[in-house]
Amino acid sequence: MKFFSELTKGIIKENPIFVIVLGMCPTLAVSTSVDNALGMGLAATFVLICSNMMISLIKGIVPAQIRIPIYIVVIAAFVSIIDMAMEAYLPDLHKALGIFIPLIVVNCIILGRAEAFASKNNVLNSMADGLGMGLGFTLSLTVVATIREILGNGTWLKMQVLPSTYDPMLVAILAPGAFITLGLLMAVMNIIKEKN
Amino acid sequence: MGYLGEIFVMAITAIFIQNYVLSRFLGLCPYLGVSKKIDSAFGMGMAVIFVMTLTSSITYLINRYLLTGMMYLQTIAFILTIAALVQFVEMVIQKKAPALYKSLGVYLPLITTNCAVLGVALLNTTAMRPDGITPYNFLDSTLNGFFSGVGFTVVLLAMAGIRMRLELVNLPKSMKGMPIALILAGIMALAFYGFMGFKI
Prior knowledge:
The structure holds two protein chains of two kinds.
Chain A: H1 2-9, H2 24-30, H3 34-58, H4 67-89, H5 91-97, H6 108-118, H7 123-153, E1 155-156, E2 159-160, H8 175-195
Antiparallel strand pairs in A: 1-2
Chain B: H1 3-17, H2 28-33, H3 38-66, H4 74-96, H5 98-104, H6 107-111, H7 115-126, H8 138-166, H9 178-193
Helix pairs in contact in B: 1-8, 3-4, 3-7, 3-8, 4-5, 4-7, 7-8, 8-9
């Protein structure tokens, strides 16, 4: 029961992007298309699950004063693994995401979960927390990317969804569009929260 | 174009054309988090310029001389360098310049997880001089770090200025805080998009 609630809280109630507002850089940068968003989200989910598991395993032996550098090294090791794996098996996606794969290291969500959750809970719950937070991150990235890709390109996951006569609103996939889309989405979230 | 001209181009590119915050999306957490007051924005900006310049020069040396043949260690080596450097800078400033420490103090630890710092270190390793074939040398990397930090500070200060005025505006409740800050950033990014057309 606990396992399941740890898993689901990251998706809506404690959604890392819309509710806790962490990890903005990758959210805005890679949400130009849905496949980039999914790739980034799944890479971050992998790192979250692995680092949460590892940190939960070593929580008893890490001296409190130097825990942050140790967490960062653990996270950096998993990021390097996913970086190299993507370069080998998904070279196109790796090229599209570029510098934002190594930058998962400094994504506040991952260090935040390590510090706030994995260092205090058992392995199974920590992994569930990592999976839930990762899915929440992936989901919100995909929502932002869906809006931007449909408005800016008329496609969704490279499939044409708007008629070909649609004149793409190019600004949506450029940098300014990212900020404005996310800002409006957050305002909508606030309205929904107020109504409830 | 002489070397001085190249440096000028690098400065304009890093500050305006490819601004780290508004066009590369690096360093957004402090940009949105520490831009509520001009004073704190200034302190954060200065700390970032300082750390970015130092990081660029040190990671250049590490990448060039220590990591040859071990590129898979790049991410780990860079983040450890930054963490150690920030800690070291914090200790030195605390000891030598207590007044500066008081104004920068709280922002220094935050810089470790500022992705603009790791970003500039990683981008320097693949960046090219204007001729398109020579990689950055030591001086180029250091200067690029400095100018990128300046670019970050410029937009951070502009944002803080706007947000201080925004406090007086009567906004719908749902737009307060983060949503309006993001939309503002979008409008600023649009304005900065105008610089894209520059051909130097």
